[in-house]
Structure formats: C-alpha cells, structure tokens
Design brief:
Keywords: Ascorbate biosynthesis, Oxidoreductase, Signal. InterPro entries: ALO_C, FAD-bd_PCMH, FAD-bd_PCMH-like_sf, FAD-bd_PCMH_sub2, FAD-linked_Oxidoreductases_BP, GULLO2-like_C, GULO_Plant, Oxid_FAD_bind_N. Pathway: Cofactor biosynthesis; L-ascorbate biosynthesis. The protein is built from 14 helices and 26 strands. It has an eight-stranded antiparallel beta sheet with strand order 19-13-15-14-22-23-21-24. The chain has a five-stranded mixed beta sheet with strand order 1-2-3-5-4, with helices on one face. A five-stranded antiparallel beta sheet has the order 6-7-11-9-10. It is globular.
C-alpha cells in the first residue's frame, strides 16, 4: 500500500467515525449451548479469553426470583457441583466466571433475574435484583427524581457484576468513584448444611462482619441477589474538555481531581497531548439537556470496524510505525472535533459546556441497543465481525506514587522516540481516573489513581506485536516497580502476580470465604489463578507474548521472529520481548 493510498484510507476511516449509527446489532449472548441449556460454553465480550482456551459447563439454569436462585444453589450443593454465576453481558476479561474443567459444574445465569427495582424516597435508597442492568437501574432512579452518584463509564454491566469486581467511575469527592462504596446493603446466597436446606440467604449491612468481604467478592463467596445503594436528589453535570500540552500532567493530576468532582484526564503520550475533563455537578435547573455518548462505545458500521482492524494489522505486519502515528493523529483530532462523543442536544456537539442530567452523563454504551433490525453496525469489538481486538491493562496506584510512574513513562517515551508509543493512542491513550480509599477487603486501601490503556492484540497467540516491549515494560513498571493493584475485571494474567501481597486485608477475605463457602463451590483453577496471583509453573514457548508469563528465556518470546527476552530500558528489572537482531539469553 502506498503512503498516499494509506493516508486516503485513514482519512476516510476518520471521517466515517463522525457518522456512527444510533442503533445496532446487539452484542452476542456470551453463552452458547449445543442443546437446550446443556453443553454450554461461556465467552467474554471480546470472544477470546486471555489463554485462548474455552470455558464450559455441562448445564446452565435461568432463575427469575431470589428464591429460585437459592433453590438452584441448594440443588448444586446437594449434588456436589461447582458453580459460577454468569450475566447477560460478560465483560470480565480474566476467567473469574469459568468453572473447573469437570463434568460436575453448573452455570447459574442472572439474565432473567432483573425485574425488581424498589426505591425508598424517604431514605433515598434503591434496592435492586443483582441481574438488573446498570442502564435500567439509572433510568429508573432518574425517573424518580434521584441520582446514583457513581457508575462505570461503560453501562453494559449488571448491578451484582459491577460491585463484585470493584468497577468504578471517577471521583475523589464524597464516597468516591467506586460503585461498591455506595452500597449500604446486600443479600448473599451461600451454601448451607442439610438442616438449612443446602443454601440460605444472608442479609448484610455495613455492621455485619462479612459486608466488606462481600462488596468486592469476585463471585467467590456466593450469589449477590439484592443490592441496596445510597442515592442523592437528582442533579445535572457540566462537562468541558481541554486538549492541551502534557508537560505538567505528573504534577497537576491531584489538583485536577480535587477541583473537579467527576474529573478525569486522558493522555496521548505519542502526541504529547493531555485532555483534562472538567466535570462537576450543577443545579437541576441549569439549562441543558446533553448526553455523554462516548465515541468508543457507539455503534460503528461493520465494514468500518473491519477496515480499521485490517489497517492496523497491516501496519503491524510491515512494522510501519509512521502509519500508526498518522492513524493516531487523525483519531485524536477527530475526538477533539466532536468532544469524544459529548452531545449538547442528544444529537450533536455544538460547543462547551455540555450540560445534562446525571443519568445521561455518567455512563454510556449506545452500541448495546437495537431499535430496529440492523445487521450493518455493532460494537467495534464484536467478535462476530473480526473488528477491533485489543488488550486492556488497568492499574490502580496509590496517589502518592502515581506522579513518579508518569515521569518514568515519559523517560521511556523520550528514550525510544515518541512515535513508538503511537499504538496506544490509536485507542484511547492512557485514561486517568480517581477513586477513594475503600473499606472493602479487596478494594483500594488509599485514595488512588486508576490508569487504563488499550493496545493491539494479535489474531494469533504466537504472533509478536510491534513495540510490544514498550507496553510490557510499562505493565511491569506499574505492577512490579510501583506495586499497583490490578483491576479485578481487566488485565492480562501477569498483572495478578503476587496480588495477595498488595491487600493488607487479603487474609480477612480468605477467612470469610472459608466460612461462607467451605466446600469451595464458587472456586475454580481459573479464579484461583487470579485471586492468588499464580504464574504458570512450567513456562511454555511464547508464553510472554500474551502476558501469560514474564519472560526469563528467549523461548518465552519468539526468537524465530527475532523477539528475544531483554531487560527494560528505564525499569531495568523488567523482562520484555524486544525485536532485535541479537539474542542475550
């Protein structure tokens, strides 16, 4: 492909992203069964797990009430089955929801357990079924004249799923940006002895000893059947994005978080651009009916998603760094032009500030929905279309360490040439969000900064990636040098190495599990691998290419394709797979 043709293609792709469709083909159901509710396979929303292995169970059940949930768990307990709870979204990237590879396992789905949402206007609370989707919950609360203060940016999650994995938005104000810290009560269905009917419902409040274990429990303690959130009177938000130079980002992030209730920062390191989001609540009578329809979560024409993937794959195969930078520049410029999906009148962006109701500004995911039969557009990562395919690394830093991490990333950028970081800027660069200290045993123990970054994943597990050593060094820098905690619902396996040492109350969580699930019904080798941070015992050839291990020999990379195990450039204790003409085993 000539440079001119390539530039024309990128310009066309960039222009097309400005005209996404309002409805789309909904994402596929994560469960596929060969027979009716039997011989079932679970996938995540990207269609491929970290190890590229399948995840299956002989049977699945679909309870519709809390009592039916209890009965299904009781039957499983009575018959000595392993159990995993699955939802209609399946947006957890690690294999927490995968049961043990045996015939004695069962999926319990909450897809049809989503009917009850009870609002208490006097106490400003809402109690909801665990299977209720976040968007349904938000809309119901807003209609009652109330607001849920914290939520995830992506709304394709269930209530129980979002709290059990520690998912979050962004805020250091009030109770903070983590949704589980706004929970004031929950029901947990746990195994029981024969005299108690093999399963029982326990009601937990902040005063109960198991409450802080259950809030972020990874589906390992029992079934979260009911959740009660604290609400506030309805309010609006006013948002303005400032695209500027990144020169002071490592010193300014704290002040930004303190001054802006829902603020975040997006950093495009190769472009040396920082995007400060000034995001604060305003009175309900403030003029404006805006909408946050984040560009990355809008539906895209299938041909466009396939073309973007094909273009990036071609650049990878030809090691074309310049092409990636052209792509990154145009994508960042497009996001600036349309305010990354903010809309003043629910239709288009006309200028700052964008003011809208909390329920329309706090979360998005328009590619989830279909108002008509549409097979031409969908979420860009829909596994049925061979569209975008990427890794998502998310690290949670104590705020006191975050500035030095950014300084190290800048050192690395300057050392390798900023162009070699263009790959991450094709997606969303680095997103900084803020969450407060939490009492949850598997939550963050101090005010923290969360950093997310996405980057290309090869279609084949043994295919190395352009500049993959840079992202591996940043990954190891975050989790090893600075001791960042991994987001439980994201990340490659290496992010969880020795994770239990990063949580001072980890043993309290394990103690709660011993009491609530003494037979380990909710555990599997997959979830144990994540919870206890174990690296595979015998490292296999190529295991470092997909983050299943940290390389210690060249064979863990791809020596036949000239990728060898090398030390990091800034964080020299890192071991990364780097393209080179010389091996240094």
């Amino acid at each position: 492909m000539t440079n001119l043709l390539w530039l024309c293609l990128v310009l066309w792709i960039s222009t097309a992203t400005l005209f996404t469709t309002a409805s789309a083909m909904p994402p596929p159901n994560p469960i596929k069964c060969n027979d009716i509710n039997s011989n079932c396979q679970l996938s995540n929303s990207y269609g491929v797990w970290g190890d590229r292995q399948t995840c299956h169970a002989p049977n699945i059940v679909y309870p519709t009430t809390e009592e039916q949930l209890r009965q299904e768990l009781a039957n499983a307990n009575k018959n000595n089955l392993k159990v995993k709870i699955v939802t209609k979204f399946s947006h957890t990237i690690p294999k927490l929801a995968c049961p043990s590879n045996s015939k004695n396992s069962l999926f319990i789905s909450t897809e049809k357990y989503d009917s009850t949402i009870n609002i208490n206007m006097e106490r400003l609370t809402v109690t909801t079924d665990g299977g209720v989707g976040l968007r349904k919950l938000i809309d119901t609360i807003e209609k009652a004249g109330l607001s849920l203060v914290a939520s995830t940016y992506w709304e394709g999650v269930t209530v129980a799923g979002v709290i059990s994995t520690g998912a979050h938005g962004s805020s250091w104000w009030g109770k903070g940006g983590a949704i589980h810290d706004h929970v004031i009560g929950l029901n947990l269905i746990v195994p029981a002895n024969e005299n108690e009917g093999y399963a029982k419902i326990i009601k937990l409040t902040p005063q109960d000893p198991f409450f802080n274990a259950a809030k972020v429990s990874l589906g390992l303690l029992g079934i979260i059947s009911k959740v009660t959130f604290q609400l506030e009177p309805a309010f609006k938000r006013s948002i303005r994005l400032n695209f500027t130079n990144d020169s002071g980002i490592e010193d300014e992030f704290m002040e930004h978080a303190r001054k802006n209730e829902f603020g975040d920062i997006q950093w495009y390191p190769s472009r040396q651009i920082a995007v400060y989001r000034y995001d604060n609540r305003v009175p309900l009578n403030t003029s404006g009916d805006g909408l946050n329809d984040f560009l990355g979560f809008q539906s895209n024409p299938i041909f466009l998603s396939k073309s973007v993937r094909a273009a990036e794959k071609g650049l990878e195969n030809t090691r074309n760094v310049g092409g990636k930078c052209t792509m990154a520049s145009i994508f960042v410029a497009s996001k600036k032009l349309i305010a990354n999906g903010l809309k003043n009148n629910k239709l288009s962006f006309t200028g700052y500030p964008v003011v809208g109701h909390q329920g329309k500004m706090q979360s998005s995911g328009s590619c989830l929905y279909s108002s008509s039969i549409d097979i031409t557009s969908t979420c860009a990562w829909d596994p049925r279309i061979n569209g975008l395919f990427f890794y998502e690394s998310t690290a949670i830093f104590p705020s006191s360490k975050f500035g030095n991490f950014i300084r190290d990333v800048k050192k690395l950028r300057d050392l390798v040439n900023p162009e070699n970081m263009c790959g991450v800027d094709i997606y969303n660069g680095f997103l900084f969000r803020f969450i407060k200290a939490s009492d949850a045993y598997l939550g963050q123990g101090e005010d923290s900064v969360v950093i997310d970054f996405n980057y290309y994943r090869a279609s084949d597990a043994l295919t190395p990636r352009l500049n993959q050593d840079i992202w591996e060094e940043i990954e190891q820098m975050a989790f090893l040098k600075y001791g960042a905690k991994p987001h439980w619902a994201k990340n490659r396996n290496v992010a969880f190495l020795d994770v239990q040492k990063k949580y001072p109350k980890f043993n309290k969580f394990v103690g709660a599990k011993v009491q609530l699930d003494p037979k380990n019904m909710f555990s599997s080798e997959w979830s144990d691998e994540i919870l206890f941070g174990k690296e595979e015992g015998l490292k296999s050839d190529g295991c470092a290419l997909e983050g299943m291990c940290i390389c210690s020999e060249d064979r863990h990379c791809s020596p036949s394709k000239r990728y060898f195990c090398k030390p990091g450039l800034v964080y020299q204790e890192a071991h990364v797979c780097r393209f080179s003409s010389i091996s240094t085993s």
